[in-house]
Amino acid sequence: MAHFLLAWRGRPEALPVQQPVEFFMLIRDFQPADLPTLSEIDQECFPPGVSYSREELAAYIAHRATRTWVAEDKGSIVGFVVASREPVRVGHIITIDVLEGSRRQGTGTGLMKEAEDWARKAGLQLIYLETAEDNLAAHSFYATRGYRKVDKVDRYYSNGQAAWVMVKHLK
Asked: Which CATH superfamily is domain 29-169 in?
């Protein structure tokens, strides 16, 4: 089932009040034909050692406990989120990727909302994710959504970079 979200293009405070620019973003379920584009987006969003190979991404998406949603703007994929259901009523955001030109426009928020709503409907009690220690913009984004840092994992990524584990309790 597709969902439509209305969001601002650019920062609302930078727009003339009398001429807001709006766009419709479509969030839909993953389709197998999306994989090459999602892999390219992942490579663009994250450095080597943090990004997934196409094979790794395909394996996560194909897992039976995983759901993937794709965000489109004007027919082009601009982001996606991969989330999984783990034992003991826990969800895991495996990755969320939004192209730089589509950030701060509601794309990431829409994708996270979709994943969190799915987790709630599945009866999950909490959801967690990992984010690079130096990705301060991501830390802020997740904190705004109610995630809290609970553990730092040294050398989490294959490039040796540390990550924070952030958790949100679902209501």
From this structure: Gcn5-related N-acetyltransferase (GNAT) (3.40.630.30)
Q: In what order do the strands lie in the sheet with 148-153?
A: 3-8, 22-29, 66-73, 76-86, 90-98, 126-132, 163-169, 148-153
- The full set of domain ranges for the chain reads 29-169
Can you tell me the distance from the alpha carbon of 83 to that of 92, in angstroms, rounded to the nearest whole number? 5
pTM of the model: 0.84
What pLDDT shows up at residue 170?
95
Report the number of secondary-structure helices (H) and strands (E) in the chain. 4, 8
* Contact (CB, 8 A) for 59 and 95: no
- Which pairs count as long-range contacts for 18-24, CB under 8 Å and 24+ apart, including other chains? 23/73, 23/74, 23/105
